[in-house]
Amino acid sequence: MTGGYTIEQPLNIDNLIPTYKHPVVQELGRLFEKAGKRLYLVGGTVRDALLGQFHEDLDFATDARPGEAVEIIKPWADNLWLVGVRFGTVGLSKGHLKIEITTLRSEVYRGKTRHPEVKFGTDIYYDLSRRDFTINAMALEFPKGQLIDPFNGQSDLVNRMIRTPLSPEQSFSDDPLRMMRAIRFVSTMGMHLSPEVEEAIIKYKGELARVSSERIRDEFSKILIGREPTKALRLLLSTSLSDKFVPELSKLKITQDPDFHHKDVLEHTLLVVERVERDLVLRLAALFHDVGKPDTKEIIEGKVTFYNHDTLGAYITRKRLRALKYPKTIVEDVAKLIYLHMRVYTYRMGWTDKAVRKYIRDTGDLRAKLNALIRADCTTKNPRKMRQSLRVLDELEERIIQLEEIEETAKIRPPIDGHEVMKYLGIGQGPLVGEALHLLLEAKLAGEIETKEEAFELIDRWAKEKGIKG
Ligand code: ATP
Ligand code: MG
Description:
Helix content is 50%, strand content 11%.
């Protein structure tokens, strides 16, 4: 086993207690017991409980039919959700807890169609055998609190190993999304793929075409915002699973002229992904920020260049994220970050205030994220170059703040203008008007005057002191 994630001690079975002994969970257990039905805590809930994490979302399985389950919980639940009943799932809330109770499955015919045909059963072992991974195929049985672990999920959890309960070939052809889920757990939980699982992904990757874009997208997002996106992305690439939904990635493996100390674009990209925080828009932007490079690469006077890779990259990204059915706001934000990620470097050539204002307008709410992306994008090992790049960013940020301050201040005007002052005091142009306006501005900035009336009162007092008006 590769180090790092291997837990030396076995998992503590007492970790299950806070979940199992939770008063609401105990009440639910007693309700099913009274009705003569079996109840099990199952899946990710058991896995996370074993790891010492208590979740307010809990999954249960039962041998009661969905209609029977509804009868059992109806008088007790705070709220009921019956939309999933057709597929065997009853949802409810009780206090803080959100609970899903699913009738045990017997056979699931999935075949080539999108919609599986569900048959209900009574056998927890069969149900567990059809789950995705051994770590997710454990159950805690009520009322005794016995752990049912037919596929050694506990030891796989200790060893951080992704294995399937039955053969991975069978499992992945039943539901190809499981290939994405396997790699998702690498990113989110620091798991490793067993060699059999990895081989089966290579063999069955083409089956991913049967899975809806939305399901792929959701797992992809979890991969990206996980703790180890790079490890997971490397697996997506090495198994070529990524070619089935983001073919742009493997194209980044173009080597650059080592004389110019350029890294492979892919290696650079992975580094940038890891360096930005765990935010979906930022991680997507990091992953796609250089997708325009392969098609813009040109050697000009012996130098590798990628002119317009930002513009082309934004275009490619928008198309890809739309195909993956990402919401419009995410698509547009990510594309915009990519479109703008090089602009700061033209700042060195000197920007007019107008150019700075355009930058403020174009970046809008995304400026903080853009800055984060640009910083993460500086992966050069050359300290001088690094300082140079970061300095440009700092200088521009400072200039923006100055400009915004000036414009903010410019917006502040006294409630009355010079003409009104002259008319009120019955005087003509001259230094007194300037003095009065200055006084008014100071008072306005100090928050002492707001309305015209207050302004005239102030002018009145001041004029009396100065002996200007009677
Ligand atoms: P998370 O809730 O963090 O996304 P999870 O493992 O709890 O992870 P869910 O999608 O909530 O995943 O599913 C709950 C359980 O249902 C899983 O733990 C697993 O036992 C089972 N499961 C989910 N999706 C599949 C699938 N595609 N194939 C087989 N079993 C699955
Ligand atoms: Mg879950």
